[in-house]
């Protein structure tokens, strides 16, 4: 198996009729970085900064953050690294910053927390931009964006940090900034958010839970958490159409991107890259290399006309078996 992976590493992720689909990775720990590079990742679509924050007993200082982010950026340079601002709340609590709520997934999480605490946001963005000096491969991703003012406020803070750093003499570039699309409201404002972004990234884990009203971590309703639900697929297709209409790229960084069957559909929808855990990358690459983009498009058209998530999943699995 290892030999197989090694061989796959240097082969492009492209269909057998020549359609290229870059595979990126989701990271959190330095260990993910090493594994990702070994597997031929073409960039980082989501670096979850909660991970280093969770491993401490207090907020890391700006300088600590700069050094952690620098390690990630340097390991992948010149490949792009998408660093997400702190996404706490929901199911992710920092022991030193407790948030007590009845409905944490509908509460104070992601960008809501950091816009209410600009000192956290500003320190983090300063650390990211400083860390990118001389590498210029940073992209900043904003979690849980639900309305336009959140996007405008975040961008204003990022621009302020950038200008301050230039004034302080740092040789830095203004990084591309992107909104995560993971709340249904953002799906219906994808066009407006795209106009304010350099890229979009879909968080299908949260988007699925919010579209279907199913807690992503509740075993009792796990059967209802259907990634292939027609409503989810339609939302995904809509986001791609809107991002492209605005002339920007769109990726997906939820678990769905690492599911080989889903990857075929996502490619056919037009996602510009898929970002997944390094564990899933070789499997997805080998599936994409084994099919044609025409077949993927036909499969997508077929399942988009189906009304039942289980039937869609079965049809996709059948297509995977046929391709084997
Ligand atoms: C998502 O919601 O799909 C996502 C990638 O973010 P997280 O899983 O960290 O919430
Ligand atoms: Mg999310």
From TrEMBL:
Keyword Transport assigned: yes
Signal sequence bounds: none
Locations listed in the record: Cytoplasm
Main location (coarse class): cytoplasm
Keyword terms: Cytoplasm, Kinase, Magnesium, Metal-binding, Phosphotransferase system, Sugar transport, Transferase, Transport
Keyword Methyltransferase among record annotations: no
Protein family per UniProt: Belongs to the PEP-utilizing enzyme family.
Designated name of the protein: phosphoenolpyruvate--protein phosphotransferase
Residues of the full protein shown: 420 to 743 of 758
